[in-house]
Every structure is written in structure tokens, then in C-alpha cells.
Specification:
This protein is α+β, with helices and mostly antiparallel strands. It has 12 helices and 8 strands.
């Protein structure tokens, strides 16, 4: 893991410049966790528009240390979600010893430093994954709203390596709509809960802008066949994310495409956008 005093921090990049200020922010958080500092670190230095940066990789091992050592379950939950969002946004084509895109950085700081940063990040994510059971157990009993519970589930999915599921949950974090892509005609299929018994219906156009259009029924699955569906349903029920638990049978169901009429399975059509 990159030492606090390493000159490499100044060579690492974030969304708005170098990472030279990141060690000081991390040290402040390790001394006393402050939500404003945590938000500043995440939003100004580590993450922007679903993109992570070289300094993000160097910071995550320290965030993991905090999550593992804290006695405050809310701090652990916040760090669990933060690092889960980061992992969900990582390019899954990367390979050890470090991403090919870091070639320029390796020329500046040396390949061994790049290998250490990347390897420490991967190990930190494994360690963070081990906290999932504790975080979910606390979320089940604590007064946590459903939107935050969905973020816990997306982080959990990212740690399991289910990046498409994690990104789907992050994109549709409010649960008030989902968008799939028909595999036959490649048109968007808008999936909207209609408020009557939790049913989800399919539309050819966004119902926000086209109120007068035909609604197509989505037939919910009676039994989850996909391992990830089963895990997600189990965890959603366990932590009380009732909206997702209600929606999942429909998201794992089937419908006729509103644009071309072809029969489609919703789940792969929903995840196809996030599988690249």
C-alpha cells in the first residue's frame, strides 16, 4: 500500500488534478471520521460521473482499514458503500500487475509502485467484501432508508464480482423506473411500476413524456433461476429493501417488446447495457 510520505501521490490523478492532498484527508478521517471530509474526499478526489482514477486505487486500502477497524456500524456502512460504488465503476478488463492505461504513470513512478497500488487495491476489495454480512445485518435492524439499502446491495454485488448488477442498481437507484434494451430490435423498453399491487409494465417510450401509449404486461417469474437473482432477492428481503424485493420477480420475468412485439426475457435485456 502506498505510504503517506510517497512522492507518488503527487503523480496520481483525480477528477480535478493530482492526488497530493489525498493523504492528508485520509489521515484526518483515520483520526476522526467526519462525513463532510469523507464527502469531499469522494466527490472531489476519488470519483466523478462513474469514473475512478489512479489516486482512487491508492486511497481504497486506507478506507478499507478504517472500515475494518471502526466500532461505529454507520461509518463501516458508509465506507462499505463508498468502496462498493468505486469497485462497481472499475474497468473489468483490467489485469495484473496493473492496468495498461497506467503505462505513463509507470514511467513516472516505476512499475513496482504501480503494481503495489493495484495489488493493494484488489486485496482491499477482498477484505471489504468480508464485511458484507455485518453491514447487511446492521442495515436490517437500523433505521436505514430504502435508497441507502439499495446502495448496500449494489456494493455487495460489486464485491461479489457482479458488476452489471451493481451498475444496474446504481443507475436505477430510486427504483421508480428501469430501462432494458430489446435484443431483437435494440430499442429501449421502459419498465415502470404502475402503483397497483406493485406490478411493472413495459412501454415503448418514456412515460414521463408519452403518457398516452399502450402498456405491455410484464409476466413475473414464479421462481428465480439465476444465481445472482436468488442472492439479490435473499439479501433484499433480509435487509428490508422492500421495493427491490417487490420488483425482482418482474425484472426476472418476461414480456413482449412494445416496439417490435418479440418475446423477451427482461433480466438479460436489463443488464445488457451494463455488460460491456
Amino acid at each position: 500500500m502506498l505510504e503517506w510520505t510517497s512522492d507518488a501521490w503527487g503523480k496520481l490523478t483525480g477528477p480535478y488534478g493530482t492526488g497530493e492532498k489525498v493523504p492528508a484527508l485520509l489521515q484526518q478521517l483515520m483520526g476522526e471520521y467526519d462525513q463532510e471530509i469523507a464527502d469531499e474526499l469522494f466527490q472531489e478526489y476519488l470519483f466523478h460521473q462513474n469514473t475512478i482514477y489512479t489516486v482512487t486505487y491508492a486511497a481504497v486500502p486506507y478506507l478499507t482499514q478504517m472500515a475494518r477497524s471502526t466500532t461505529d456500524p454507520e461509518v463501516r456502512r458508509d465506507l462499505f458503500v463508498t468502496c462498493g460504488v468505486i469497485e462497481a465503476s472499475r474497468d473489468r478488463s483490467e489485469a495484473a500487475p496493473f492496468p495498461a492505461a497506467w503505462a505513463g504513470l509507470a514511467e513516472q513512478v516505476g512499475a513496482p509502485v504501480c503494481s503495489d497500488i493495484y495489488g493493494s487495491y484488489i486485496e482491499a476489495i477482498r477484505e471489504m467484501a468480508s464485511l458484507g454480512e455485518d453491514v447487511r445485518a446492521h442495515a436490517a435492524d437500523a433505521p436505514v432508508d430504502e435508497s441507502e439499502k439499495r446502495y448496500i446491495l449494489l456494493a455487495d454485488a460489486a464485491y461479489r464480482g457482479s458488476h452489471p448488477v451493481a451498475n444496474m442498481l446504481m443507475t436505477f437507484s430510486s427504483g421508480d423506473e428501469y430501462v432494458a434494451v430489446c435484443p431483437a430490435c435494440e430499442q429501449d423498453v421502459y419498465l415502470w411500476p404502475n402503483g397497483e399491487g406493485g406490478r411493472i409494465q413495459a412501454f415503448a417510450e418514456d412515460p414521463v413524456f408519452e403518457e398516452e401509449q399502450e402498456a405491455y404486461e410484464v409476466v413475473p417469474t414464479a421462481k428465480f433461476a439465476d444465481a445472482e437473482q436468488k442472492t439479490l432477492a435473499k439479501h433484499a428481503a433480509a435487509i428490508g429493501e422492500h421495493g427491490l424485493a417487490r420488483d425482482l420477480p418482474y425484472l426476472a420475468g418476461e414480456a413482449n417488446c412494445p416496439s417490435c412485439g418479440q418475446h423477451m426475457q427482461i433480466w438479460p435485456a436489463l443488464l445488457s447495457t451494463f455488460s460491456g
